[in-house]
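Ex. 9. Protein: MobA-like NTP transferase domain-containing protein.
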Amino acid sequence: MSLPVLVLAGSRDGENDVLAKLGRVSHKALLPVAGQPMLARVLDTIAQTPGLGPVTISIENPDCIQHLTGDATILRSAPSPSESVAEAIDRIGTPCLVTTADHALLRPEWIEEFLAKAQGCDLAAGVALRATVERDVPGTKRTYIHLSDMSFSGCNLFLIGTPKGRNVIELWKRLQQNRKQPLRMALTLGLGTLLRAVTRTLDSSALYRRIQKLTGANVRLVTLSDGRAAVDVDKPSDLTLAEQILAQTTP
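Predicted structure tokens for MobA-like NTP transferase domain-containing protein:
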């Protein structure tokens, strides 16, 4: 049985996005990376990965990607990523693999490793440890989340394994809605959890337990063995880096 895939391709700025302007395209998802639109790169990788499909793409302007998507279903995205995921999952169901259109370096072996390690939980998120990223992509500047037992960067790979995983998406929605109101975020997560996060005394096990208490879902951070999995194309310097990596790895 194939695993459905959701690709998030939305952009708040549309054709005014810095990368869209840089690539002279109507949408960030169409930005050429080493001569190929990055959305097309992601779709090719999904097609090359055994056991995946059908594919759903979430974007605010479906018309602009019709020529790239083949048999994929296109949904109009919601105002935020969390809302887009929630609306799409209501239609797709679970389990479902979620990735993003700006994951231009995505490789089948990363997906296969992630899925093999993510079994048995309600929601899993792929991450790369800081040491792994610095080993494989020396000199890169990534955003890291620091827990007391690990520092990591996200890899834009998620598995919503069961309907309980949907509860975590709802928690994400609430946090996004309150992102400019720290007190409300603290009340949502719990003040103790937030303080431990700020002081870097929160470890991954405590984080899992807190999320499970709030949502009923068993969650896991899945560490990937290739630090390049943490490289997405979110700014001009990322485009340069991605094209350098592709030039080094493409036969």
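Check your answer against this statement. The beta strands are 3-8, 32-33, 36-37, 52-59, 73-76, 96-100, 123-129, 145-146, 151-160, 219-223.
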